[in-house]
């Protein structure tokens, strides 16, 4: 539980790092989606934030158990208008439980995707192992006009100073995201694991629409349809597909570091930002 002042501090800190103006408002639903602060304003208050990709029942249990004041759920759990809120729907039950517990929920989603230093820059770092190894880093779909976010936008393309083998690229992706297995769609030239890669396009989550038509040796994303994968191969581009939220979850450590620092700058008191231990991608490769 958090006071209105605490919720405001947490929300303003998240929005300073990831301005809502960066989000794709044509379809995305970002911002403070559940607001239920305490009526009182304690003189001394701990700011307690739980970070997750998806707001599942187990994450709600965790938030209540940890006495979180705000949950930062990367994916919005409300997309369309609600005509009723009942116990018959699992997400609505979670909403009611959080409201009763006085826990607010903020969802930044595509604002984090587009931000400079956000999730897509994180994925490029996984590929290149640092800007010193890059000839260039470009945005696929720029988002302009947001102060302090010059160079923001959806998707990224990196061109490496020194080409690497496809097997090395796979190793970097698995290590950077903490995965044992990924899916690949290989062109004939990349069926040789020693084939060289000099350019990689990335987009967290479901990246097919953002990366459509982007010229790169490999497209690296979380989710790709059957015909989209075929289309890439037919046009000479291979793909690495890791599972939708697996391309996003690794960024939570960076989010944790940045948000903790910003909250400590704004709040004269104790701050705790933790990452959910139960949040995980619903699909597994076995």
TrEMBL record:
It holds the Pfam family DUF34_NIF3. InterPro entries: DUF34/NIF3, DUF34/NIF3_sf. A divalent metal cation binds at residues 75, 113, 244, 248. Signal peptide: none annotated. GO terms for cellular component: mitochondrion. The keyword Metal-binding applies. Keywords: Hydrolase, Metal-binding. One of its GO terms (molecular function) is hydrolase activity. Gene3D superfamilies: NIF3 (NGG1p interacting factor 3)-like (3.40.1390.30). Belongs to the GTP cyclohydrolase I type 2/NIF3 family. This is GTP cyclohydrolase 1 type 2/Nif3.
